Amino acid sequence: MKLSIIIVNYKMWQLTRALVESLLKDLPKSTEIIVVDNNSGDDSVYLLRSDFPEITVLDNPENMGLAAGVNMALKKAKGSYYLILNPDMVALPGAVQTLIDFMDKNPEVGVSGGKLISPNGKLQYSCYRFYTIMTIIYRRTFLGKTAMGKQTIRNFLMKDFDHAEIKDVDWLMGACLMVRKKAIEKIGKMDEQFFLYFEDVDWCRRFWEGGWRVMYVPSAVFSHFHQRSSERNAIIGVLTNRPTREHIKSAIKYFWKFRGKEMPKHE
Q1: What is the mean predicted confidence (pLDDT) over 164-171?
Q2: CATH number assigned to the domain comprising residue 45
Q3: CA-to-CA distance for 35 and 20, rounded, in angstroms?
Q4: Stretch 47-70: mean pLDDT, rounded?
Q5: Which of 25, 79, 176, 197 lies 20 to 30 Å from 98 when distance is taken between CA atoms?
Q6: 156 in a domain, yes or no?
């Protein structure tokens, strides 16, 4: 098996269905699709199995988070590569094959990711430099409007390079990750202590630490119906918005995990 495509669904049946349909229209040879339902509590599992008998649907009895859902699929996956996609993605023609070809030609790459665009065609920033504590503060408080805050956020989002170029990057958004099986065998699966957010940052950092490159491949284009589910104001968000709380909790876990360690360097 060449490729295993992994999707973790949680109460996004319609989006997951649209993604699977887009994949089946342009599916490379020797590819399997695995959908993990993280206990959506609706008819997602039944509908997916009924509409797409050619895919594998795993019914997780509880929602243990994104990383745990991905790892559940990885145990079943048979591919040499794993393409992890969020349900709110649509694969444009040729995108999946482009990533496969790139990985075939670059055996030192552990993770690659395509260019993400909004439904209106606008670029979404999906490759980043590693977080610092100040990045979090600037992005979630009024300090982000200061000159230093704007520059820090610009640097974090990598707005200083042409997103039409292939490039080594610190980390890629977990919405679209093509991962090499041999690399995972050396550095391990996703860290399940991250229920939501930072599992992608953590994973990419571990790939770099393990000697594997992480690369942005803009010729593989995916449409992404992404909306930030956490609020910008940290204080209000903690009180009212669960995704914001999860983001902050995961950030604390991430910085604690890598405390005292130098950032991987690759440029």
Answers
A1: 97
A2: 3.90.550.10
A3: 9
A4: 96
A5: 197
A6: no
